[in-house]
Amino acid sequence: MQGDADVKLDSLYREVILDHYRSPRNRGTLEHPDAQAEGYNPLCGDQITLHLDLDGERIAAARFTAAGCSISQAAASMMAGLIEGKTLAEVQSLFDDFKAVMHGHPADEEKMGDLVALEGVRHFPVRIKCALLPFETLKQALDSRTP
Ligand code: ZN
Q1: Nearest one of 129, 93, 90 to 118, comparing CA atoms
Q2: Residue 61: strand pairing partners
Q3: How confident is the model at residue 14, as a pLDDT?
Q4: How far is residue 85's CA from residue 23's CA, in Å, rounded to a whole number?
Q5: Ligand 1: centre distance to CA 57 (Å)
Q6: How far is the CA of 70 from the centre of ligand 1 (A)?
Q7: Prediction pTM value
Q8: Measured in Å, how far apart are the chain's first and last C-alpha atoms?
Q9: Distance from residue 67's CA to the centre of ligand 1 (Å)
């Protein structure tokens, strides 16, 4: 599914997206994660496995492994770096904001960090699921954790 689609998307591949794709932050696994989930985007074939260590209501560590297009992998790298140290409420708010950006709202750069670089993805509706996959997987991991 890559190849053609990725060539057409050249205009939105800003340098920061490529940088995260080529040198992903927080890539890897955690030995005894407090929460984990696997996400899959069948439209594009993107896969992500997310591991989280929690410290009460705060995300102490986030690691991911991913396969798929550069948008999904860059988004995973951006998200994992951003959520470390944040509370679950802050993370939910970040997810809500990012979804809003994908649906046309302006991005708050201070809050969203490098995720702002993905703003242009909203012009390519089929790729929005790629950008949202890491957050969907994060939500799945948090929802499925055993108390
Ligand atoms: Zn994708």
Answers
A1: 129
A2: 53
A3: 73
A4: 21
A5: 30
A6: 7
A7: 0.89
A8: 39
A9: 9
